[in-house]
Amino acid sequence: MSLFTSNPFYELCMKPEAGEDLHQMAGVARRYGYSGVAVPVDTSGVEERLKRESENLPTGLLIARSVELVVKNASQLSRLLHRWWKRSHCLIFRGGSESLNRLGVENHQVDVLASPGKINHVLAKLASENGVAIEFDLGAIIHRRGLKRSETLALYRNNLKLVRKYRAPFILTTNPRNLYDLRAPREMAALSMLFGMTREESVHGLSTVPKEILERHEKNFIAEGVRLV
Amino acid sequence: MKILPPTLREKKRYLAVEIMREGRISRERLIRALQDSIRELFGDTGLSETGLRLLHFDGNHAVVRCTPRTVWRTRAGIATITEIDGTKVSLRVIGIGGTVRSVMEKYIEKRNDQTLKREES
Fold first, then answer.
1. Which pTM does this prediction carry?
2. What distance in Å separates the CA atoms of residue A205 and residue A133, rounded to the nearest whole number?
3. Domain that holds residue A65
4. I need a surface site. Which of A61, A125, B69, B92 has the fewest CB within 10 A?
5. Using CA atoms, how far apart are residues A81 and A52, in angstroms rounded to an integer?
6. ipTM of the assembly?
7. Do the chains contact at A142 and B90, CB–CB below 8 Å?
8. Cβ distance of A183 and B93 shorter than 8 Å
């Protein structure tokens, strides 16, 4: 089981609800074995809560700043990228439609393409070239039931096939809104096995890819594998 | 009648489960929730292969039995439980062992000791 004990794990899409205690959620994440989480700082209140609860936050857990980009066109995206690129650790682009997904994966400054729906070979190839990670939202598998869930699993199976073929980066998350939505790394792997992902791939999506994303935003970072020392 | 020789017995794995909950849940409801969620994911055949049994439950921890081949399936079933009887819950496997005793000693009694100590201090 060294796979799950030797790697640092990250949950990049934590979105604490208004009534939720940030430090409590962070504590649970720490206990579950995560090394870091990312919380959105663009939504109102989170920045202040981070400051207010700073004393109660658990030690040994990296709390990165993420930004969710919800845009309609390319000019809006470039404006937001310009604004947040240097002030955050993780840029999450909310996709959905074909044209939106295309916009997201074409921009190498975008880190994650969230809720992409069904991707195709063109998107997967672009995502691979630009290093945009495709999100697999396991929260949907947890919360949906019946036919809806089987549709989601079929969708993920399709996305996984393309992601494998083009070696596009991908991340696993549950989009947790409260502490009951969080899942430990091994549970995440168990859930991703439902749509055919191997354990090694799960660890890749929980550890390697998010780590690279966070490193990309470090001050000394120059290019993939090149760092100012 | 002679007892079933050990070589012919089904192999088992015991999962130590940690339960995070908002309110109280009963033993019966937990078993029901486990069975239902595994059945919803893998169907009746899938559930029958797991040989599921709940062997210990004290409110915060449980020991669940399954076969070695179905450990990850059971884990997925455990991970998809979101509520029991209208109470928000989140379950997590904290350890796996080959006997109930080893699982209890290694994962559950130790943890209960720790929580007791924390309450005392």
1. 0.89
2. 9
3. 2-222
4. B69
5. 27
6. 0.88
7. no
8. no
